[in-house]
TrEMBL record, chain A:
<comment type="similarity">
    <text>Belongs to the bacterial solute-binding protein 1 family.</text>
</comment>
<dbReference type="InterPro" id="IPR050490">
    <property type="entry name" value="Bact_solute-bd_prot1"/>
</dbReference>
<keyword id="KW-0732">Signal</keyword>
<protein>
    <submittedName>
        <fullName>Maltose-binding protein /trehalose-binding protein /sucrose-binding protein</fullName>
    </submittedName>
</protein>
<keyword id="KW-0813">Transport</keyword>
<feature type="signal peptide">
    <location>
        <begin position="1"/>
        <end position="21"/>
    </location>
</feature>
<dbReference type="Pfam" id="PF01547">
    <property type="entry name" value="SBP_bac_1"/>
</dbReference>
UniProtKB/TrEMBL annotation, chain B:
<dbReference type="GO" id="GO:0055085">
    <property type="term" value="P:transmembrane transport"/>
</dbReference>
<keyword id="KW-1133">Transmembrane helix</keyword>
<feature type="transmembrane region" description="Helical">
    <location>
        <begin position="197"/>
        <end position="219"/>
    </location>
</feature>
<dbReference type="GO" id="GO:0005886">
    <property type="term" value="C:plasma membrane"/>
</dbReference>
<keyword id="KW-0813">Transport</keyword>
<feature type="transmembrane region" description="Helical">
    <location>
        <begin position="111"/>
        <end position="132"/>
    </location>
</feature>
<comment type="similarity">
    <text>Belongs to the binding-protein-dependent transport system permease family.</text>
</comment>
TrEMBL record, chain C:
<dbReference type="GO" id="GO:0005886">
    <property type="term" value="C:plasma membrane"/>
</dbReference>
<feature type="transmembrane region" description="Helical">
    <location>
        <begin position="206"/>
        <end position="227"/>
    </location>
</feature>
<dbReference type="InterPro" id="IPR000515">
    <property type="entry name" value="MetI-like"/>
</dbReference>
<dbReference type="InterPro" id="IPR035906">
    <property type="entry name" value="MetI-like_sf"/>
</dbReference>
<dbReference type="Pfam" id="PF00528">
    <property type="entry name" value="BPD_transp_1"/>
</dbReference>
<feature type="transmembrane region" description="Helical">
    <location>
        <begin position="287"/>
        <end position="308"/>
    </location>
</feature>
<feature type="domain" description="ABC transmembrane type-1">
    <location>
        <begin position="171"/>
        <end position="364"/>
    </location>
</feature>
Amino acid sequence: MRINAMAGAAAFVLCVGPAQAQALKFQPGEGAQFTWSSYDSFAAAHDLTGQVLTITGPWIGPDKVLVESVLAYFEAATGAQVNYSGSDSFEQDIVIATEAGSAPDIAVFPQPGLAADMARRGFLVPLDDETADWVRANYAAGESWVDLGTYADADGTEKLFGFFYKVDLKSLVWYVPDAFDEAGYEIPETMEELKALTERMVADGGTPWCIGLGSGAATGWPATDWVEDMILRTQPPEVYDQWVTNAIPFDDPRVVAAIEEYGWFARNDDFVAGGVQNVATTDFRESPAGLFTFPPECYMHRQASFISTFFPEGTELGLDADFFYFPAYAGKDLGTPVLGAGTLWAITADSEAARVFMEFLKTPIAHEVWMAQSGFLTPFAGANPKAYGTEALSAQGEILTSATTFRFDGSDLMPSEIGADAFWKGMVAYSSGEDAAAVARGIQDRWDAIR
Amino acid sequence: MSPLIQGLMTILIGIGGCVGYFWLSNLLLDRVIFPARGPDQGRNITRANAVRPWLFLFPALAALGLYLVYPVVGSFWRSLFNRDGDTFIGLGNYVALAGDDGFRTAVFNNLLWVLVVPAAATFFGLVAAQLTDRLRWGNLAKSMIFMPMAISFVGASLIWKFVYANEADIGLINAIRAALGADNPVDVIQIPFWNNFFLMVILIWIQTGFAMVILSAALRGIPEETVEAAIIDGANPFQIFFKIKVPQIVGTILVVWTTITILVLKVFDIVYTMTGGNFGTQILPSYMMSYMFRDDGRATAVAFVIMILVLPVMAWNIRQSRREMR
Amino acid sequence: MAGIAGRGTRLGWVINLSVLALVILWLIPTVGLLVSSFRDRDQISETGWWKAPFAVEQTYRARVDAGGAVAEGTGFVITGNVFEAAGVGSGQVTAFGVTGRDPAAFAPGDMAELRGGGMLTVAGDGSFRATSPEEFGRRGPSIYFQAATPPKFTLDNYRRVLGADAMDRAFINTLTVTIPATIIPILIAAFAAYALAWMEFPGRGLLIAAIVGLLVVPLQLALVPLLSLHYKVGIGQGFLGIWMAHTGFGLPLAVYLLRNYMAGLPRDIIESAKVDGATDFQVFTKIVLPLSFPALASFAIFQFLWVWNDLLVAKVFLPSTDEAKVMTVKIADDLLGSRGGDWGILAAAAFTSIAVPLLVFFTLQRYLVRGLLAGSVK
């Protein structure tokens, strides 16, 4: 009975195969911005018919639809079946799953810190050296991406485990052009201007900012981005690097000052929609909704590039909503720093399908299909920049390339107990009124405890 | 294939296995090992009857041993090791916990929960039991108050989000405040210290029905003569309730109280879904979750602390049940 | 007897009213959830559920297409209907405005000055007329207006929760976890309870005491060692593991409840059956088991509710994939995250998850109460 059922399932998959090919978002061969040749040669080289690949990642809701639209091309090209499942508490779940021996084939880590932790415990399968060379040669600033994906394994040997695919830009401020036009506000070019604009909006009777830290079990992380952006805007990048590795303590006065810079925006009842108490509980996906109400509950929202997927249905980027670079201080000679992040794909259970999938991520088409939709940036030089589906994405690509400093989201680089727990909880505590130095002290204590 | 079919198969295999085990093992005992015939008939029956209880008990004892006794020992053992589980560090995890502010907050909050929730639920349950006892629609009223028992803690948390929400258009509390003329909505989940009580209300809401049902049965078991004698003596209803009735059901009240206390020490869902442990509402079970699968040594140490907190209740329970047996 | 309620009608009234108040207080939160789950998502965020039967005033923006401008006299004119332009059905305009900051500055029929120097008027039925001395820019003027929409009740929330949010799968998973995890412990516990209630053997009292003690062991203690045990023996995370875990965790209560009940059965019946030559196995299956039906039913309900509503055990013993998520995990980890502010979806999801337990509860309440009493009050 069991065997019959399996055979039935296999037959079902076979029947579904060609049907899925038709469900592809962009028809292969159509559109000059897509490198279809890479798709064709990949499809010709690999045949995984009947194999099943499971992928677990952090994307749920609209993001899940996007990633599945890319996975469909892998299915169509190889005949394999890909099961993607997303979870909001991915960070906890992937550890539970691997410890229990029910790991997926591939895990998509939003946190290199967590990936490093799992590599050290022997839960990840290293990628080959060609992959490292490929990243070095084909990614802009390739060496830094290799570094970010290289960790010590169980024996302490450094190996490449993670492949970066899908980069997010964090230093963006979102606004509604109509609202700015009607009130006569100009896009601020410097942090000084941004602060002045914030105060002017209050003087005009408006509320400048929407800030929401809520994110289920991960509540607090949006504030960590604020703080990281603020460190990059008040201190040289070396300080940032030392802070991330805890070479300088978390409660260093320079870090505490950056936390308080964030507090200048978030701990002022006049500056944030709903008052300070709303900051910690508003869900980060719900938070930008305030931009789009009449009258606007707020005028600006600092969040990474992916947030546009959570704007109300029918929002047209560029017309209904737009963004500007979260500016740097003119008075400090720190250039134009940019904070970003990316998702890291790693093999958690070795199989032919998993290896072939990693090859798929090296094809331009794997990048272009998502570029042509939303919320996707790539440092891959081989992907056609014309494939970006919107002006907004191209503009973000431009911010990415014109940055004088690029730093990876620090909380993702810290040990997961800090970057994915203590820092989050600390920022919630700070946002709801606790003292910055005390919060930083508490995080440092936790860091000391895990040594 | 589908988990549902798998589930049905499990039911069949599980039930078949259980029935088969009991039936076959009994058959084996009576017919093969100690057959109730032949020269040793009498001795064999006695022997079979000495073994049989253990046949009946074996599956339950095995499951209990594996799923409850072993973990107590296993957890304690694990809590003596470091985060990776490869280095013995003695009581290091407990020492680290004692020095952690978050842990102290969690213990303090947990004590609050243990003091407040059972007391409040028992009190409301007692009042509800007494008030509904003689009403014509008492049973309907009881059903309504009992109903939250059926709702999951997660579901209950969502239900209460519609009461506590920080917008006057969603949350009932803020709507009432707005109607009374308050300017700004207040987020009750963020009021330091008191937010703990707002979370406790959810559990009290759930558990009051339980207390009510049991206490109402106990109230009905009170001999009527005692009450009638008091009425004749001219006692007023409040005196009857507090001086005559309550003293007679103290035993039941204590049972209800301890049962809820045990539950309180297990509940993690409410804090997890309402605040995630932020805003100073951490309790031990949710505090444990932030270490679990990161630092299992620390997590098991927290679990063991919960165990220690429960010990007095356990001792009391055992003493009580032994007294009843006699 | 002449109870308290019977003492004079005034006290009777007070009691009736206070019970009524108590019941309402206890019901209100659940009613709020139920009502909200049927409301339109835009209306939920505009007015509270207690105002659900009334019309809701919402603000919209209409972007007027400058392409429809006609030269008229010395200037240009655009006419049309704001409801069409904003893409909302129809209704009655109660106010309009020309800036987002003040979207209700003018009453229908008023003349409002546009920023470019033109004039705009919107009538109550939504038809508007914008004039400008010069040509309209690439983007025509934006018109903001308030309109009252009648109360809307819909099943959309349920449709979306069950369809797009994979709650249907979670529902089936919950069933899959719950049913075996309810039935298996009953069988195992019934035999053990019989042995503890009616069989004489050394150590019986000690065993009963031990089971009473195990009633209290916190679940948290079991999670880490058991998961690694499951991992070692190759069960890993999955339905088999969670069935076994729930069986183990439910047993102390099952044995305790059933033993208390069985011990209370009349001694004569059992002894006379034994005198007639029935074996313990026959006594158990033919006499004790049927007589214990109320206690079995009540434990079944208990265990059903416990397993159905459990979050912690499911979080640890089931994999975190969508294919294996039960409803509580789905709500706590998925929906509260991805639908954080979407109250209608949350309400519908919560109600989907509590509907079955409520049904079980209301139909089988009698047994639940009886079992509770057998367990707690001797």
